[in-house]
Amino acid sequence: MTDRIRSAEVIVSSPGRNFVTLKILTEDGIVGWGDATVNGRELAVASYLRDHVAPLLIGRDPARIEDCWQLLYRGVYWRRGPITMAAIGSVDLALWDIRGKTLGQPVYNLLGGAVRDEILSYTHATGWSIEELKDSVDEVLSRGFRAVRAQSGVPGLETVYGVHRGETSYEPASRGASPIEEVWDSRAYLRHAPRVLSAIREHVGEEIELLHDAHHRLRPIEAAQLGKDLEPVKLFWLEDVTTAENQEALRLVREHTATPLALGEVFNTIWDCKDLITGQSIDFIRSSVMHAGGISHSRRINDLAALWQVQVAPHGPSDVSPITMAASLHLDLATPNLGIQEHMGYPSVTSEVFHSTYTLADGMLHPGDAPGLGVEVDEAAAARFPYSRAYLPVARRRDGTVTDW
Ligand code: GCO
Ligand code: MG
């Protein structure tokens, strides 16, 4: 007999940071978990799910994953955008989880099976000075990673994207009634970043993969200059050199530099990615599996990228929950054109709520073979970590103008 969705419930919790979790329960008692975290706007997506999506799900056949996706995307006049697509993504993840559990299979086996044995990943190194950054890189390498993202301070700036504030790890969002305001100076950054990355290249030798994230803040010609200046460093990629809205800009950057370009962590549909992919303006597409509408939609992005020899390199920050991380790993394992998976890592208390079975050893990830996605949520533990408002920082130029963060 066809199973049916009995309930869909939203859990907002904060084990170390805020997460929005969707729990779908079927009449047969199968639970599917989805993640719908949108950093700094968590309650908006929680309401979208609770007030508008959950009522539509009750009574549906959970095996009809694609039909459900179409219903929530095409069946709604007001489409796309980060809140909508994260909500759809969470439903999609939960339904794939249910499908895997129903069939007793890890989700990657429902996606055509593994095309590789394990998944190359990178994590973050952070330091105010070059010396501190070298120590941080060494610490990452000592954990077995062969690819590392390096972010450093900029002389004259007190806070910089990707560089820890106080503690030794970095988390961009901060709790409180309003965002931290940072002063940003592109000229100072452009002078300093090539020095830092050359020093790190010299420190690690030529075999370690180095990545760097400019986090959307340069103007097109500045981005082109940076790409050019960094060519001797042979980066694995330079990420988000300019904002993702003005996609023509990437063509300009491309004309000036052979430094590989990665972009797209803020994208949420194939429509956001298509011109950059088909124009071959980027080398890596970075959308996260949940923010881009779940496994069902992300695999279409991946296939489009494959046609144009663009590699898939999913966003994996601390602000997507371990459920999204696991879903990403299932899709990665079954995706021929995977480049690399980001694994920023989580505060240690996160694992009190999210019990994951995916593994990370020597910088290589595997989703594990548990049926479904392989992450279970401890609801009693989640209740011990109530939501508290947190914001991503706001950046201002030296003259006070708000600029891209
Ligand atoms: C990355 C990202 C993140 C974002 C964060 C914002 O490459 O991992 O840039 O660190 O800043 O996901 O919510
Ligand atoms: Mg990034």
Quick take:
The protein has 405 residues and is α/β, with parallel strands linked by helices. The chain is 36% helix and 20% strand.
Q: What's the topology here?
A:
Elements: E1 5-13, E2 19-26, E3 31-35, H1 42-57, H2 65-73, H3 82-103, H4 107-110, E4 119-127, H5 130-142, E5 147-152, E6 174-175, E7 181-184, H6 186-204, E8 209-213, H7 220-229, E9 237-239, H8 248-256, E10 261-263, H9 270-278, E11 284-285, H10 295-307, E12 311-312, H11 322-333, E13 341-342, H12 350-353, E14 354-356, E15 359-361, E16 364-366, E17 375-377, H13 379-383, E18 390-391, E19 394-397, E20 402-403
Parallel strand pairs: 4-5, 4-13, 5-8, 7-19, 8-9, 9-10, 10-11, 11-12
Antiparallel strand pairs: 1-2, 2-3, 4-16, 6-18, 14-17, 15-16, 19-20
Helix pairs in contact: 1-3, 2-3, 5-6, 6-7, 7-8, 9-10
The structure holds D-gluconic acid and magnesium ion (MG).
Q: Bin the strand percentage.
A: 15-25%
CATH domain fold name of one domain: TIM Barrel
Tell me the overall shape.
globular
CATH domain class name of one domain: Alpha Beta
Q: Structural class, from secondary structure content?
A: alpha/beta
What does the radius of gyration come to?
21 Å
Tally of separate helices: 13
Helical amount: 25-40%
Please tally the β strands and state the result: 20
CATH architecture of one domain: Alpha-Beta Barrel
Unreliable stretches (pLDDT < 50, length at least 5) are: none
Biggest sheet: strands, sense, closure?
10 strands, mixed
Mean pLDDT level: 97
Name the CATH homologous superfamily of one domain. Answer: Enolase-like C-terminal domain
